[in-house]
Amino acid sequence: MTMSMPEVERALRQLRLSGVRATLETRILESQASNLNFLETFSLILQDELDRRQSSLIDRLYRTSGLDERTSLEEFDWGYNPQIPKRLCFELHTLKFINEGSNAILIGPPGTGKSHVAKAIAYAAVRQGWRVAYGEADELLDRLAFTINTERRSAIKPYLDADLLVLDDLFLARQLPTQSADSMQTLLHQRYKSRRSILITSNRILEDWKTFIGDAALTSAILDRLLHRSVMVEFRGKSYRLKEAAARLVMGSTKE
Q1: Structural domains in the chain (count)
Q2: Distance separating alpha carbons of residues 51 and 57, to the nearest angstrom
Q3: Are residues 198 and 233 in the same domain?
Q4: Which partner from 148, 166, 203, 212 sits 20 to 30 angstroms from 54, CA to CA?
Q5: For residue 1, what pLDDT band results from cuts at 50, 70 and 90?
Q6: Phi/psi at 197 (nearest 5 deg)?
Q7: Which DSSP helix (H) or strand (E) runs through 227?
């Protein structure tokens, strides 16, 4: 028995085929106008459903990632600061390091683009269907450290399970409290065992981490696991934030 369009709509709703529902009438008109055979029409309808599901997956992964913007390398001003290691940044953007279970550490002065590159890599991972957990490092580690014991396991789980964990601006607040350093060690140790990738950005060179962690043995354990399978990217050059601030001052002077 042939279904009416309302009946087809109800069936698609029951089957949760929202991609088919959204484009079915258009595909029927296209099939009639272009004399498409059944297989050609059916292929278009199936692709619409696949596209809708992929789009929904990316939206869901982005919402749970902790990212606050959909950043890309396309909008990055490479010409302003030629000292930035462009080749290494694009190599990380291929996401091969996630497939390999390796880590990445972006080190350099404030304002040189580390966070922008890290967020672009994280969003590229989201678009490829990877689970990403992003957070400003010091705040995230403090929050985990001071979560009550009964809730700690559920609080840390998303950061252990993510395919890519991004700890942005590590040691921005200088001294890391003991409990936060312990949280960092737990994250790195568990992710090292499961071969899940971590991307860290920091203004602090590795030689100074002992000072900010405050425990030589703990620092050694952290760096041992972090650097075993890792790509180090050093950022140098001029600050983009100072460039933007100068541009705003010029704009303000022009308006006056």
Answers
A1: 2
A2: 10
A3: yes
A4: 166
A5: low
A6: -80, 150
A7: helix 216-228
Q: How confident is the model at residue 249 (pLDDT cuts 50, 70, 90)?
A: very low
User: Looking at the whole model, is its pTM more than 0.70?
Assistant: yes
pLDDT at 9: 83
CA distance 150 to 169: 28
Given a contact cutoff of 8 angstroms between Cβ atoms, the answer to whether 123 and 130 are in contact is no
- In our burial notation (b when 16+ CB lie closer than 10 A, e otherwise), range 6-23 reads eeeeeebeeeebebbbeb
Q: 107 near 202, Cβ under 8 Å?
A: yes
Q: Is residue 103 domain-shared with residue 161, that is, in the same domain?
A: yes
Give the 3-state secondary structure of 2-26: CCCHHHHHHHHHHCCCHHHHHHHHH
At residue 251, does pLDDT exceed 60?
A: no
Other CB atoms within 10 Å distance of the CB of residue 166? 28
- For 77-99, the pLDDT digits (tens) are 888 888 889 999 999 999 999 99
Distance CA 137, CA 157 (A): 16
DSSP structure string for 65-127 = H--SS---STT--TTT-TTS-HHHHHHHHTTHHHHTT-EEEEE-STTSSHHHHHHHHHHHHHH
